[in-house]
Amino acid sequence: MARFLSNQKIALDFEGFSFIYGNNQHQKPVVSDISFKLKEGEVLILAGPSGSGKSTLSYAMNGIIPWRQKGLVKGDVKIFGKSIWDYDFSELSKLVGLVKQNPNDQLITFNVKDEIAFGLENLKFSHEVIEERINNISNLMGINHLLNRDIEQLSGGQKQLVILSSFLVMNPKILILDEPIAFLDQQSESLLLNRLKNLIESKKIPLTLVIIEHRLSRVMNIADKLVVLDDQGKISLKGDIKKIITQNFEDLRANNIRVPWIIDIFHDFIKLNRSTEIISYPTTFQELLDIIPHLDKEDLRKLYQIVIDKEIEPKAFQKYDKFEELIEFKDIYIKSLKNTEDKENNNPPEEINEILETKNLTFKYPNSGIVALKNLNMKINQGDFIGLVGPNGSGKTTLLYLLANLYEPTSGHIYYNNKNLEEINQFEYAKKIGFIFQNPENMIFRPTIEEELLYAPKNFGLLSDIKESYISKLLKLIGKEDPKKNPYNLSWGQKRRLNLSSIFIYNPEIILLDEPFIGQDQRTIDALIETLYIENKRGKTIIISSHDYHLLLKYTRRIIELNKDGTLRDYDFSTNYFQKHRNLGPIILLEKIEKQIEQEDNEK
Questions:
Q1: Is 253 helix (H, G, I), strand (E, B) or coil?
Q2: Is the residue at 96 inside a domain?
Q3: Within a domain: residue 444?
Q4: What is the 3-state secondary structure (H, E, C) of 275-306?
């Protein structure tokens, strides 16, 4: 995706860069011997498993290393030909903007407009210039209607757009985005990626972009290059992004990269049938559709079944259907497993026990007049596995807070086992709920990993019931870390896994998860999904709120969809949801294959 002439400047140059946090030269470097170049105007995707050093590289690009984060450095990093050591920190921060993964880490003011204006005001721009830039950027990013909103009233996705806007008004030369679409709904995600694409293709704004992202499918079409780190903090792959994605599938999976689903499907198809007519992998959904007419009926049926097995009714979990005894799943010890669903028709058990119910549930944020949820009526059965979807600001997080009894309804009621939540002892109800917050730091309370893991069991008086072997396995889930380490020094993904461990350990009946896939590599997502699947089969009720429709539709049993105004749009089995939403990629692909088979039959 060439956008500029061949005489582009080198915007970013890593030369044998290694880094150790602290001053222990015998400690293993977080990143080792990193070397790559990025030209002005190019877009780089930086990928790799959790804890591979992606954030460390971003800190070296914008001066946090070495000016704010001390450590031992080998090699060099150059920004437009000048070493980071030769820059003043304030000078470098104007050239390179870093939008962190968690927007709450960078929000400073109380109001959206003030937040966007903050940097410009510090640099003493005139009022007229500030107003003009704010209006231009807010319109560009589609958030002009939020300018007078309080920060606390924003959803996670809205906060992300505000932070990004606050950097764009500064006109940086290099912009680093750490999982920029993680908190965004599909509409906001498309808006952001389209706006970024327009920015980087504009000759008037030669913006160099570095995107740290696990989901390659969402960003590969706006990128030029890909650098993949391995779990040792070394470069495993680097080069043209489309070449790597189509020619290094196994290497990408070995490094826990979330490979685009069309590549995943086609890779399995090629393994089954290496047709000489197929020249190369498709890199876009349209390219995959264009291949269909060139396949014979046998190949079409093979591809059709692969789509069913991987995207509609995943076969990966069928091996667990017959388990009834003790099992060990990777890093998590499961005490028992009961088959509680009819896999053939996805029907619920004959005996339906309602565990949660909402009646005319409405919630307004105090002193704002903003209605987050409106007249919500639904019943959730014991053992349900539910995906909660909807656009930013539709009330998904608010609903989880209400179900966890962290918010009180403005009107309406919530029932647990047919009893009004208002009449239930809050402490006893808390034992029944496991809540994973959107921001993992919101549920870290203790100074060490081990203390954090045991925090809930101690509070609930359950510590004597926890086996040391189970504690050990949950610690391993977090990673190869010292149990005495401060949890705040973990990566985002590790903090999330600590959250999960601290929930699993006290065995709640209901597990509520708010955006649990953010910051997770493929291996961790697989482990999380399978663990939740098994916990669900043991009878636990699970609700996952996420913008990652792809994962929710594959693995959850039902889908709750909320409208923008906080009302209920849909509540149905995920298989039915697939059929009602014919614009979903796997459904379009299946229909294309069906029509092609029908056409070939008619021609005969």
A1: helix
A2: yes
A3: yes
A4: CCCCCCCCCCHHHHHHHHHHCCHHHHHHHHHH
